[in-house]
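Morning run. Coffee first, then this:
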Amino acid sequence: MSTDIETARKLFSKDLIDAAIRIGMIAVLVILCFRIFAPFAGMMMGALILAVAFYPLHQSISKRMGDKDGRAATLIVVVGILIIGGPMVMLGASFTDNIFSGYASLESASLTIPAPPDFVAGWPLIGGRLHGAWAAAANNLPAFLVQYQEQLKGLAGWVLSTAAGTAGTLLLFLATLAVSGIMMAYGKSGTQAIHRILSKVAGPAKGPKMQVLSTATVRSVATGVIGVAFIQALLLGAGFMFAGIPAAGVFAVLILIAGIMQIPAALFSLPAIAFVWMSGDASTAMNVVLSVYLLVASLADNVLKPMLLGRGVDAPMPVILIGALGGMIVSGFMGLFIGAVLLAVGYQIFMEWVDDVEPSSDTAAIQSGAGGQPLAGSE
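And here it is:
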């Protein structure tokens, strides 16, 4: 009997050592692969999101070209670079110049801040404090900077680092768009690979459902929310530049964030139109053209949202906003796009898991009340 126990201990010890070695080797391999892939993770994730969002358009173009997936992907990438790349470069250069010139004015104590409008004090929750801080900065900026030195120091560092990395962000976006074209060209095999991966992770029954949910959420958020806000920011930002409005790049970024928050772009376009007419630097005909363009661009979301937002699953707007702002804080402007989509996908998958509960007799009893009687107010 003791011999059998000793033999079992040796076998168990040998199996345990073998399992520990295998797990350790797998862990080392995973860590090394992660460290190698980490520098490209943001770009690959952004490219995957763009590829999923543009894939229906790619398939439509490919069918018209005789099922030439590579040519269709190349056409989308080239057109995207021509249409998006030019305005992005101009607005990026304007944003960088505005930030650094503003910082230089702040350092030389030549920066002036206008007094806040009276209606700001009436804003709920933050109106009073915002109006007070704004008025203090307008009346005595050096004293305001000294008072809030610690709070402004981190914010100024982040803004300056973001402005300094604008050129890199633009190049990264263009590279991401190019990589998304490669993914679209191999979209069929990629879809099958993702199907196999999710089926392995979540099971053959839930894997395909998770794939459909994730794809629908990516397309809904990337095109219907981020895409609309991005297009509107480009249109208005380019209009601001042509109209000669100061800090056009900064306003374009604010319009992008406001679009994600579902704040009307008219809050920016109407003051811009007033500036165009008050400045008097152009002819009446040019002022009319610029005013019409800015007004139409500010209302473009009313046309784009019904076309794009209706596709897929609508994620709650606070989730998208938190993802966008958190992603921008962590990874800059590319993170704004990636963070919103990833958090929305994670939220949808989590809620799908929460709702995937088999009804039980206890649940039915709670819903119907004790003794099978309806709960008060349920009728």
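The CA atoms of residues 121 and 291 lie 30 Å apart. Good start to the day.
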